[in-house]
Amino acid sequence: MSGISRDAAELAAVQPLRPADRSRWRGFVLPVAAIALWWLLSSLDIANSALLVSPAKVFDTAVDQVVTGRLWRALSASLAREATGFVIGTVSGLLLGALLGLSPLFNRIVGPSFNTFKQISLFAWIPLISVWFGLGDVAKVVFLSLAALVPVVVNTCDGIRTVPPGLLEVARVYGFTRWQTVTQVVLPAALPSIFTGVYLALIYSWLATIGAEYLLVAGKGIGNTLIEGSEHFQMDLVIFGMLVIGTVGWLMNAAARALERRLARWTGRAT
Amino acid sequence: MTTLLKPQTSNELDIRGLGKRYTHDQAKSGELQVLEGIDLHVSEGSFVSIVGASGCGKSTLLRLILGLDTQYEGQILLGGQPISGTGRERGIVFQDHRLFPWLTVAQNIAVGLRNAPYTAREKAELVAAHVALVGLEGFERSWPHQISGGMAQRVAIARGLVNRPRVLLLDEPFGALDALTRSRLQNELQRIWQKERITMLLVTHDVEEAVFLGDRVVVMQPSPGRIRRTVDVDLPHPRNRSDPAFIRLRDDVLSDFIDSGAEARSPTQPPQPPHKPQGGLPVPGLPAGLQLAW
Fold first, then answer.
1. ipTM metric
2. Measured distance CA(A102)–CA(A106) in Å, rounded
3. Cβ count within 10 A of residue B194
4. Is the model's pTM score more than 0.80?
5. pLDDT tens digit string along B104-135?
6. Which residue segments constitute the domains of chain B, with CATH numbers given?
7. How far is the alpha carbon of A190 from chain B, nearest alpha carbon, in Å?
8. A-chain residues within 8 Å CB-CB of B87?
9. Contact indicator for A86, A148 with CB cutoff of 8 Å
10. Is the CB of residue B27 less than 8 Å from the CB of residue B180?
């Protein structure tokens, strides 16, 4: 009896590792199955080959795009735009969010306007932006900055406002100056929330990059690759573009998660 | 080192006619009298326990002494001088440890010295000495989420003591801990107090804890929060929980709570259980049917 229960306990202790290990690979089941089905359908030739290109064709296009350097030109243009908009949006978002969170006066003056502003769908800005800034890089970067700004402001302000009052009392008890309280208590306590905002900004600004390239059509970019593909009815190019966009988004996600784990060691959530 | 650790001049705490009111919508007068006519003298180096049920204003009293709340009637004097705001000469240990989760154990203790007039080396020495005092050697670099609740509370005690306060206030410091850890930490606190001889003022709802640690036990009662009586605990330290004299004193203090409950309860209303049953009020061996109402 005791032997059985001990075995059960040991099993319970060992067991959780294996499914977790296995589930890593389970994520690949669906994509692999989809590609297999896609490959099967296109090789059976039952669908219109112009609408449903074969995986082999997409692969050829991918090789062509890489070899000719077109992929790199488009991707580097997009990433440069993304980075510029992300940095501008995040930095101004951090400032605005910190001011909204720290200063009740600033919050009373600017808060209501910002809350109205953030209700306007990002894409509703496109007509105004294109009139003011044209269709070039400036307009795109403005659009991306807006996309990055909103989540950073909201999460920074939220994080600062929800600092546990008990910790602020500790700062008061030990005679922290206002500056010490902000830099050594409020900001560290708000860091996980701030990071969530920056992480969302990274994802939003990448999505907005493609949106901007698609809607403000001028110049090079991975979004323009998509347009080119659809205009020339090259579904292989379209699918290739989508794969690149997805991969970049996935890499950004993974990088942000890894960075978050390093930054927020102390929260105990990281493993 | 020893000169650093030496407490400053007269560290007696004197509270005279202290009262505290909050504005309150539901009260008839629009105000709620939380504390009224509190007179309390804590002589230098002594340990005073304040015991009372939730809502008797004992934590409010501590917040006033700490200087987190500056609106009150009466006087709070430390070494003859009225207190103003918070100050490093008054340390505190809260019920929830309130450690900064982004700082290690040693860094959290050093928070108590952030603005103290010591050199970096002196601060490091003081932190190391207090890590040792609370028995946490080897855990200096642990994060708060990696240590147990009892250890976190030891860190909080070290943080409260590290800049040699003239008085250490303890606000139900062991209230959130399990019974075994609680009694172990009560022994630890007694040892620390005997070693350091810092004036300590403990607020608790655990009668046994109050009697075990205090030279004097101040019993408070609510509505408005006031002192019911003061009991001198004339037993030598370290104390023994199974000493008949200790048990007699504990039961004597406990009887205050039982009497008042029987009187205050209206016959039409069912008895209310105490708010925080994890405290020391429900003591085994209490006659069945006796209710603790406050």
1. 0.78
2. 8
3. 11
4. no
5. 999 999 998 888 888 899 999 999 999 988 88
6. 9-89+165-264 (3.40.50.300)
7. 11
8. 175
9. yes
10. no
